[in-house]
Amino acid sequence: MAATTFLTEQSRATSSRQNGGERLLRTLQHYWGYESFRPSQQEIVESIIAGRDACVVMPTGGGKSLCYQMPAVLDEKRTAVVVSPLIALMQDQVAQLEQMGIPAGFLNSSLSSEERSEILKRACQGAYRLLYVSPERIALNGTSDWLRRVPVSFFAIDEAHCISEWGHDFRPEYRQLNRLRELFPSQPIAAFTASATRRVRQDIVEQLRLREPLKHVASFRRPNLRYVVRQCNASTQMTMLLESVRRMGDGNIIVYAPTIARVGETVDFLEENGIRAIAYHGQMDARARRENQEKWMADEVRVMVGTIAFGLGIHKSSVRAVIHLALPKSVEQYYQEAGRAGRDGKPADCFLFWQKKDAGLHAYFIGQIADAAERERAWQRYREVESFVNARECRQRYLCQHFGESPKWEKCDGCDVCAGIPDWIEAVTQSLKRGKPASIADGRRKPVTTGSANTTAADEPNLELKEYMREWRRNVSRQKGIAAFIIMHDTTLERLCSAVPSSLSELRRVPGFGEKKTEMYGNEILAALERFRNGERARPDSTVGHPGPAEETLRLLGDRRTFEEIAQIRNRKLSSVISLVAEMVERGELDFQPEWLATEVFDQIASACQRCGTERLKPIKEALPEKITYEQIRLVAAQMKRASPALLG
Ligand code: ADP
């Protein structure tokens, strides 16, 4: 049975090759609107069509999806089953495929049982070219029964490194995928991942029982990424962050913070400094998370501050920087997160601003791991991270070697080791040493905004047009209720703004405009371009008037909210709220309110401040009864400093 299928598939592939691969190119043009394949894509597509298993390691942005989507499209009567770990990712992929005119569906826990049975029914009729399912679903009893009724062409396993305990993102539910081969001995299995060491690759092949798979490992070098690693202390770190964000022109930024509390503090810090930023972490409710993600994807807010929960499945091509505020858990995790920068192939920065104390947090997390073997693996991963940051070797080269590659080159000429620490980082360090305030001024600094108001059109000729088309995309996205990037990728938008087509046939030549997309949006886009030619521009920065954390806190205090309530509403720690209030009191922006503290407590703290000075809070705390908190002291000290700065400073 297996051999027959194999032969049929192979003869099918041979006949397609006889057409000189033209059929593939025609399909590429028709559905994707692309002119040519990226390196290796065609080989992988042909191999899957020929019925061979595959294990593909390709860096983020390399174009993995196409490698399984195209064979799926070409098999017109059958369905490729794609195993994918994230619900949101499945939905996005299906929406994108539908926009390209490719029938696709997904099955996961977000569906009602009616929706599920409808999709199952259609799947069994062979209505989909691609069917996305979660690994948990494959593991369910009874899956093999319904899956056998689906005319499966092949299986594609996305994020395949999740199957390996040696990987940085092991997911037990992936282990169940080892049943696939047994259940479907004649269907090819193709595994895809962006980050797998040699050991993890071996594990993938063994676990999935791949048979003489096509092994494709692309180089891990990302020539357009500039890795810069810098050890900081708490204050230099925030200054580095601020400066790196300010220096970004057009494009988006991801900031990774180690804890949920740090996410909130970092968003506040950026907003206090006039930069709009939003948060993303595991404790936000799903709707708020999705909303924030979409705002960022649609370029409404350019800076996203997240925990590692953010990013898996984020397909945004114009990320200009990924900034880490702590050491990651593993080199692979770092490579994957940093790799979300520059998917469009244009230069992008990966800053790793770490602190010595990060080790403590890791020790804590690793200590929580119950399984001894897993704990040891976690330590091993962490030691590798330490050795990466301390290495005096080209960062690109180090990463390539980590994944088992033997580069023939020595230097990348871009990273901090090869090219040195960028001047501006040096300048920040020097100015902090001289005790100057955080911000350094230099003419090249550009603010991050969403509107055209603060960026000069002279910097980039079609910046205004890009803003205008982004606004168009946002509006369409709101009207239709679909995510902006599904309407048009950033790279497609860029190409559109460079080409400025004036007819549908010119539009069709812009990479990313396949038949369906041109049909759906072509006329609207041409009309928008025409309006731009006639002088219409994007509305000025929509962030103007957005309340920062200080304004928001003042408003809530004005509504007579307690500090605890404010902390809850703003999703911050109580101590962060009080710190912010104390700073405002100290700066004279807010009056100390008698109801914050009982008079005798205030007096007690005030006299301790007189005795000990307000420079450090610890001696004050020690001089007072235990029940008096740091927060209370912080507030009174702020009031004292404001009342008589000279006396107490
Ligand atoms: P990966 O999953 O490997 O991170 P994607 O499949 O998301 O990468 O592809 C990255 C980007 O490259 C996407 O915007 C995709 O549309 C684009 N892309 C992929 N293949 C091609 C191609 N042959 N020509 C032009 N763009 C491509």
CATH superfamily of the largest domain: P-loop containing nucleotide triphosphate hydrolases
User: Which of globular, elongated, flat, extended, rod-shaped describes the shape?
Assistant: globular
- Helical residue percent? 40-55%
Mean pLDDT: 86
Task: Report the biggest beta sheet as strand number plus sense, adding barrel if it closes.
Answer: 7 strands, parallel
Q: Would you report the number of β strands?
A: 13
Which CATH architecture of the largest domain? 3-Layer(aba) Sandwich
Query: How many whole angstroms does the radius of gyration measure?
Result: 28 Å
Low-confidence stretches: 1-10, 437-459
CATH class term of the largest domain: Alpha Beta
Work out the helix count: 32
Looking at CATH, which topology of the largest domain would you report?
Rossmann fold
Present as ligands are: adenosine-5'-diphosphate
Structural class: alpha/beta
Number of domains: 4
Which strand order do you get reading across the main beta sheet?
3-4-2-5-6-1-7
Describe this structure in words.
This protein is an alpha/beta fold and 649 residues long. The chain folds into four domains: 13-217, Rossmann fold (3-Layer(aba) Sandwich), CATH 3.40.50.300; 225-454, 3-Layer(aba) Sandwich (Rossmann fold); 458-533, HRDC domain (DNA polymerase, domain 1, Orthogonal Bundle); 549-643, Arc Repressor Mutant, subunit A (Orthogonal Bundle), CATH 1.10.10. It has a seven-stranded parallel sheet with strand order 3-4-2-5-6-1-7, with helices on both faces. The chain has a six-stranded parallel sheet with strand order 8-13-12-9-11-10, sandwiched between helices. Helix 28 runs parallel beside helix 31, helix 29 (599-612) crosses helix 31 (630-643) and helix 30 crosses helix 31. The longest helix is centred in the middle third of the chain and has 19 residues, at 372-390. The chain starts with a helix and ends with a helix. It binds adenosine-5'-diphosphate.
